[in-house]
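Changelog note: in this version the structure field was regenerated for every chain. One regenerated record is shown below for reference.
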Amino acid sequence: MKKAIITALSSTSYKFMRRSGLFRLVSFDFAIDSDLKLYLSGVSSSPQLYNTYPEIWKFHEDMLHDMFEIVQVLLRGRLSRIRDFMTRFVRDKLLKGVQYDLSKTKFSFRRANRDIFEGKFNIPKNNTWEPLIDMNKRGDAAFFDIIPAQCTKG
């Protein structure tokens, strides 16, 4: 199942893997045949989160809670990096009237503003989401060694 999800996201990386600004909730539908073989039957970039069954409501509530915990960790890290960048920039450049290279400053700001998990803020251990892709890592590690990175190149 994880391989199917990674392959589907990687094959549409132009759509799913670019930075969305915050997050992207995607649903994957699977079918199981009589031999218990699993098939990916659909992917939706705008999943429906409603149903009349209380169990489904509870599942969606828990899923969204866990998703927002992850978003909060990403945003706290990003805001911390941007605050640190701005503090250094104002202290070391603006207040001292020092000339600065605009392209280097933009590059430094982009690095501070990226989606990346840091050790400073952690996702709670009881969060049910599992990482599958982290494009800040290189090679097979970007896919948590579930599939080789070479399998995702088109």
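Spot check on this record: Residues 52-130 form one domain. The chain has two domains: 1-48+133-154, 52-130.
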